[in-house]
Every structure is written in C-alpha cells, then in structure tokens.
Amino acid sequence: METWAFAVGSGQLHPGAADRLGHFDLVVVDGQEARRRQVVAIRARGAIVLAYLSVGTIEPWRPWYRRARPYRLRDRFEEFGEWYAATSRRGYRRLIARRVAPRILRKGFDGLFLDNTDMIETHRRQARGMHRLARTLGRLVHARDGLLFTQNGFRTIGPSLGAYDGWNREDVSRTYDFDHERYQPVPAPGRRAARRELRRMAARGLFVTASDYVARGDRSATRAAVRVACQAGALPFVTDIGIRRLPRRPYRCP
Prior knowledge:
Elements: E1 4-7, H1 17-21, E2 26-30, H2 36-44, E3 48-54, E4 57-58, H3 65-68, E5 72-77, E6 82-85, H4 90-105, E7 111-115, H5 127-142, E8 147-151, E9 166-170, E10 174-177, E11 182-185, H6 188-203, E12 207-213, H7 219-231, E13 235-239
Parallel strand pairs: 1-2, 2-3, 3-7, 7-8, 8-9, 9-12, 12-13
Antiparallel strand pairs: 4-6, 5-6, 10-11
Helix pairs in contact: 4-5
C-alpha cells in the first residue's frame, strides 16, 4: 500500500464516492453510514476498505445509542459531543463485539479502524476492558482474514498491541487548536515524539499512517505534513478537522 484516505467526515459517501476513493490503496469510511454497495464498489477498484468505529466513546447519533447509553461515563469528549464509554462493563463490550461490529463487517469491509481507544490515557479504570475489547475484535476480524487498525494511544496500547495490524498517528506536524479555533503547527517536541512513535510502531510490525489537519489552501503546511510523515515511514494524509476534504490526487511519499 502506498496511499490512504481517512474519509470518515460527513458527505464523503455521496454518489460517485467510489470513483474518488478508489484511487487510494487503503480507505477508511464510516462503518455505520456506508452501505454494502458502496463498500463493494470501492473494493472493486482495488482498495482495501476499513470501517471506522469509535469504541472509546458513545456517539448519540448512532442507531445503537439506546443500547449503549447505560454505559456512558459521566464526562464527555466535548469537542465532538460524544460520551466516554465504560469499556470496563462486560455489557458494553458484548454490545460492540457481538452486535455492532459484526453487523458492520457484514457489509463487506476488509476490517475495522477503531477510534478513541486512547481514552484510557485519562480513564485508567477502563484500560483493562479496552484491551479485552480490542483483543476480542482482533479475533473477530482476523477470523475473516481482515485487518484491525487503531490510532493514537502509543503509551497505553501495549497490552493489546498484538491485536492490531495497523496504527495511525494524528497531529504529527499540523493540528487544530479547539480553544483558539485555528490550525497551527505542532511544537517541535511534539513533532519529534510523533515521528519517534511512528518508527517504533513500524518496528513492532504494524503498518503505520499519519493524519494531519491543515486549513484549506495552505499548501506549504500540507507539503510539510506530507514530508514529515514520509520521513517517519508513514503513509501521509492531510485534511480539515472535520475530515471532509479529500485531495484530488492521493498523497504519496517520494
């Protein structure tokens, strides 16, 4: 694989999406919103297609929200309006592993892309449950010869590292500041840490990607983000914070 698209933002699955997304080698789309015919169409163009699924948060707009609601923690991921999930509760893990994930995979996906698994960095009591859930989903996906990816959480991924095939690192060199509502460079120490994490994850056998967030039209920042990701051995992707923007041509490393 040489290119990838993190196409989980609203509107990415409009009519004709397969023509745009089929140019990438690896594509991540929303697992619940995607329809089977869309997944099949993108795969028919040669792309590997993974289903995005947040397991560390409970999103109010999902059809499984009513069943997941009893497992909300008291605090929220305010920037995106999601509740953190009580992964320590067996009922929540069973909901995801036995109902939500299998239903999504039946659409023909090549695997899952898990999000917010890093919530255990701030919710340590949920760590054991999160690792159990990741390992369960790994067995589910691998039984179908599929792939399991996640992102972030380098410091806490250890106990479930063996369940994953790939890892994405957000904010390698460019990020979005929610407090000031602006795009900005990641400070030098953060850039060095991100590159180091990507190299270490690759050395552990994971396929690594990077996603950076840049204002529309900022070509200089985009080029820099691609360059830094490639230097770290990761496939680059650059978009807006809402993940609604796709490049006309896939980003490639030299």
